[in-house]
Amino acid sequence: MTLRPAQTHAIPVPERLAGVLAELGRIVVGKETPLKLALTCLLARGHLLIEDIPGVGKSTLAQALAGTLGLRYSRIQFTSDLLPADVLGVSIFDPATQSFRFHAGPVFNSIVLADEINRAPPKTQSALLEAMEERQVSIDGATRPLPDPFFVLATQNPTEQIGAYPLPESQLDRFLMAIELGYPDPAAERELLLSGDRRARIPDLTACADAATLVAWQREAAAVHVAPALLDYIQGLLAASRGTGGGAPRLQRGLSPRAGLLLLAASRAWALLAGRPMVLPEDVQAVFPSVAGHRLAGSIRAGGPQALALLRAVPLP
User: Fold this and answer.
1) CB 284 within 8 A of CB 239
2) Of 11, 50, 66, 84, which one has the fewest beta carbons inside 10 Å?
């Protein structure tokens, strides 16, 4: 992939992030909110799960993110016969040196597309757990750090499709957000029909950043101010999900403290995208369904309505 270099002159971070979104919008048409959520997830140092039918642009989004941010990219096609070594790497004996030499797997890239992750057996799915949580891989007694930044974008088909297996809760919890792309609206679909497959334009994307710039943006997102009243609001949402908030609907499972930390990180990143130095309640509301939905019900489709019900039940600060 040949990319034009990122511009280095001093431009405010929100304006540069708006440029990233504009470049992504050239490839993934008519999906402004999912694009903002995907970039928010990346800024919050999380991982993203996209649950949708084939052919709506899930893989294209991952490629576009890598191209626009100037990051190394790899794609892993999850199948029923995929082994953990196919994801992480393997040590192979080298006769010349009379020793084993480690051959890194595709997980050793900044953006990793785990395509159709729920078509692989649980043993292979779990091979990503340490990498996603600890940002390192332990093989043959040695611990190898992964690149910084490191972002897993996993796609899964709806579980009612043939050959699809639900991800366990421990695996779902490793994803900061879960979203759907959905069908394009009529105007966007007409544009696609007229212009053809947008994947052909990915090599022409302008790299608006690089790895060091993205890490700096992630630090800036983590430093966005949060007022005590906003923390009260987040705690109210967590309590409501556990059935301890007044007027909250009864849910099968509540949100964990880790979910609260991830919600706060995502809210900060969304505020940075909006150009604000502090988090507002609408930032929390914007990201809450994507952060909480798959944790509440095991999938974004089932959990999204529950998350919206929680937002209605908890009063604003």
Assistant:
1) no
2) 11
Q: What is the pLDDT of residues 278-317, one digit of tens each?
A: 999 999 999 999 999 988 876 777 777 888 989 998 998 7
Residues linked to residue 49 through DSSP beta bridges, in sequence order: 154, 178
pLDDT tens per residue across span 225-276: 999 999 999 999 999 988 865 555 556 678 889 999 999 999 999 999 999 9
Of 176, 60, 143, 65, residue with least CA distance to 111: 65
| Residue whose tokens read 């993205």 | 214
Say which CATH topology domain 224-313 has.
Helicase, Ruva Protein; domain 3 (1.10.8)
Condensed to tens digits (0 to 9), the pLDDT of residues 71-129 reads 999 999 998 888 889 999 888 878 888 788 888 889 999 999 999 888 888 888 888 87
User: Is 224-313 in the same CATH topology as 13-214?
Assistant: no
101 bridge partner residues:
92
Rounded to 5°, the CA angle 202-204-209 comes to 85
Q: pTM score, two decimals?
A: 0.88
Collect all residues with Cβ–Cβ distance below 8 Å to 297 and sequence separation of at least 6. Answer: 252, 253, 303, 306
CA distances from 127 to 89, 91, 92, 104, 137 (A): 11, 16, 19, 14, 9
The C-alpha atoms of residue 28 and residue 64 are separated, in whole angstroms, by: 8
Domain ranges of the chain: 13-214, 224-313
